[in-house]
Predict the 3D structure of the following.
Amino acid sequence: MLRSFRLLSLIEGLSLITLLFIAMPAKYQFGHDFVWPVGMAHGVLWLAFVAMSLLVSHLRKWSVGAWLLALLCSVVPLGFLLLDARLKRELRSTAVTAPAG
């Protein structure tokens, strides 16, 4: 579940970067309106991110503060990279403590 959440976080973060730094400038600089489809995709991905973050935070017993930090990382450009580092650490610690077999 955590690996899936990490992947969704990366995709959602890249959709935000695409929206802010490619679609929006293309609209105002060149008149190409990519904002609607990219914005719609980002919105759907963000809603999926919020739902999955609630599920993961419940299953992994995160504090409310940790969950809110994950949400904050999802709305700050490049914040998804901070969340990815945290999730990577958590995945590593889970792999170390998990019994073999």
Notes: The first helix runs from residue 2 to 30.
